[in-house]
Write a structure and sequence with these properties.
By secondary structure, the protein is α+β, with helices and mostly antiparallel strands. It has three helices and six strands, in the order ββαββββαα.
């Protein structure tokens, strides 16, 4: 997969999209690569440390330190880096990222089968 970019422009190992318009979020999974989080923070206009589900994460603004777009990125510890990107406010991105849950592939397939068609 590609290394994380501030806007999540390059898909990692996998990606998922939630919501629409200014309430949309993209979640990407990347292989963890040493120094990738520090490089992303360096290339962002604003970066700060936050906690997402007991993980030390970097919250960053891609273009504008007041308006974003905002992203959060952290390493899960099993070789997986999670990145959340959204055009929502800083706090909404943190809230959304904190709502994510790690589930097994079987549980994911069940949840996906039970969800409605989001294109309607």
């Amino acid at each position: 997969g590609a290394l994380p970019s501030p806007l999540g422009l390059f898909a990692g190992l996998w990606s998922a999209h939630y919501g629409t318009g200014e309430r949309s979020f993209q979640v990407l999974g990347h292989r963890s690569v040493g120094g990738a989080l520090q490089a992303l923070a360096y290339w962002s206009v604003h970066a700060e440390r936050v906690t997402i589900n007991h993980h030390g994460a970097t919250l960053y603004a891609a273009f504008d330190a007041e308006r974003g777009p905002w992203g959060a990125i952290w390493e899960e510890g099993d070789g997986l880096t999670i990145q959340v990107v959204g055009f929502a406010s800083r706090d909404e991105v943190v809230r959304f990222a904190s709502s994510l849950e790690d589930v097994s592939p079987a549980a994911w397939r069940v949840a996906k089968a039970q969800s409605h068609d989001c294109h309607d």
